[in-house]
Amino acid sequence: MIVTILIVIAVAVAAVLAYAASKPDTFMVRRSASIAASPEKIFPMIDDLRAQSAWSPFEKDPNMRRTHSGAPRGKGAVYAWDGNRQVGAGQIAITESVPSSKVVLLLDMVRPFKAHNTVEFTLDRIGAGTTVTGTNVTWAMQGRQPYMAKVMGLFVDCDKMCGGLFEEGLAKLKALAEGEPATIAAE
Questions:
Q1: What domains appear along the chain, each with residue ranges and CATH number?
Q2: How far apart are CA 126 and CA 131, in angstroms?
Q3: pTM value?
């Protein structure tokens, strides 16, 4: 009886590990929000890592140590942090900055787990010609998904977890850009 139970458990564990191995080697999390403001108004809030603290969903530890270096904004700007378990520790650096349309960043997490991901914000005008009614802002993150992350992904939905934080941040960015209370939900 005990041998049968152990065999069943071993087969179940092997099946879970094999299923995890079949998952993609990369991941992508993406969320968007429509904001009733021009790309020119929104872009500085993303391109300046100091300005991001006003809307970032990751600024939840009041005792977090923060360091800014490199360029004041745009390509070469670097922000490093070391905080509690909720925010972890790492560094983000702007690697590409295209005024009013795109900011690409390299995210290097140290804890709670090591990760090296690419983060991209794209700003697309809503409206044509001189009639701009707003901006569609997309926040995306992609990177390698090593085997252990694939296994963890069977139990923790990274898209839902990170996507929820992206939605929270986009809602705050929308509220700031539109000059409204921060209770607006992202699309």
A1: 26-178 (3.30.530.20)
A2: 9
A3: 0.80
